[in-house]
Design brief:
alpha/beta, two-stranded antiparallel sheet, 8 helices
Length: 181
């Protein structure tokens, strides 16, 4: 993944972006080198994408333990492996701050009962109805918007964004509390 553009944007617009380093733990030592590099550049968190990089979440435990020790939150886009992988990782990393993208796609409700998880609702993969059910199930303190790069819908002159009706704390406060070290 190319992290350079994300970190360039965060330097150009301080206070607007909280840069997360996108890593592929399947790369072994290279992933750890990338983690070191981006922590040195001011990473405020890490993003993992097991579905895109074709690995199950427990493969990432060495990187996740380092994030846990550094106090860095981890945003995970699930899709490879069963929902039980999330619980196994949380058991192995009891201080890890984990956010699952798109309300926990593809597992949703089974993950909502895991009290240590936070849930991203950015983008069109989470409908208004799904967002409402999530808020009712986990409460507003565990829901984040914008942590997974909100995806715009194509419009005549670029993209448009349809923000769901969410409590103010979901629109930034929750994410900011996770990235504090």
């Amino acid at each position: 993944p190319d992290n350079t553009s994300v970190f360039d944007a965060s330097r150009r617009h301080p206070g607007r972006f909280l840069p997360f380093a996108f890593l592929n733990p399947g790369l072994g030592a290279e992933a750890h080198d990338e983690l070191d590099r981006w922590i040195g550049e001011g990473a405020r968190g890490v993003k993992l994408h097991p579905w895109c990089h074709d690995y199950r979440l427990p493969v990432a435990l060495p990187v996740l333990r380092r994030c846990e020790d550094a106090g860095l939150p981890v945003l995970v886009h699930l899709g490879a492996g069963p929902s039980g992988d999330v619980e196994a990782v949380l058991d192995a990393c009891p201080r890890l701050k984990m956010v699952v993208a798109h309300a926990g796609i593809p597992h949703y409700e089974p993950l909502w009962g895991l009290e240590r998880l936070h849930f991203d609702v950015a983008g069109p993969l989470v409908s208004a109805g799904m967002g409402k059910r999530l808020l009712e199930a986990v409460g507003p303190s565990r829901v984040l918007y914008g942590s997974d790069g909100p995806i715009g819908l194509r419009a005549a002159h670029g993209h448009r964004y349809e923000l769901p009706a969410l409590p103010d704390r979901v629109m930034g406060e929750n994410l900011c509390s996770l990235v504090e070290r």
